[in-house]
Design goal:
It is built from no helices and 16 strands. The protein has strands spanning about 5-10, 15-20, 25-30, 40, 50-55, 60-65, 70-75, 80, 85, 90-95, 100-105, 110-115, 120-125, 130-135, 145-150, 150-155. It is globular and about 45 Å long.
Length: about 170
């Protein structure tokens, strides 16, 4: 990378490591040799701040300060589609559900979005009062917890089904 590394994730089989950077790229690394696999993954117009690898290891999703998500095809080493705009703020965190069917993202304007894990179709939205620093699914993928500089908030996934509609009040 030509700038700071901002995110790292191992593939489920532990053979690959993926890194995100302020140089607007992702890199895939062979864990055994330490060598890069293919060329840098490019497509974001600003710093990539978060990434997640699907549970089957076939896809990577990255979020950046250009307010976009990109779904990557690991085998082909390129985007599976165009960058997806949907957040109003800088995307800071992304996570896959345990079965890979859902993705959750959080931004610095307090937006939490739920996406289809295969198509990136938006499945739900919730606005909270604070910048989102981290998002995670529960082990059973039934709940999402968000972390900010001020508090934690947890919500059932099944209540985040109407795109662009507030779901639950901040706790």
């Amino acid at each position: 990378h030509g700038d700071s590394v901002t995110g790292v994730a191992f593939s489920p089989n532990g053979k690959l490591l993926v890194t995100a950077s302020n140089d607007n790229t992702l890199r895939v690394w062979n864990v055994q040799t330490g060598a890069p696999v293919g060329k840098p993954l490019t497509g974001h117009r600003d710093s990539i701040k978060c990434l997640a690898i699907s549970p089957d290891g076939r896809r990577i999703v990255s979020g950046a300060w250009d307010n976009t998500l990109i779904l990557w095809d690991v085998a082909r080493g390129r985007p599976a589609g165009p960058p997806l705009a949907g957040h109003d703020g800088l995307i800071r965190s992304v996570a896959y559900s345990g079965d890979g069917s859902l993705i959750v993202t959080g931004d610095w304007k307090g937006g939490v979005r739920l996406w289809d894990g295969h198509t990136l179709a938006e499945k739900g939205y919730q606005a909270v009062r604070y910048q989102i620093w981290s998002v995670v699914f529960s082990a059973d993928s039934e709940h999402i917890v968000t972390g900010s500089g001020y508090n934690l908030s947890g919500n059932p996934v099944n209540q985040m089904v109407a795109p662009r509609c507030p779901v639950l009040p901040q706790r």
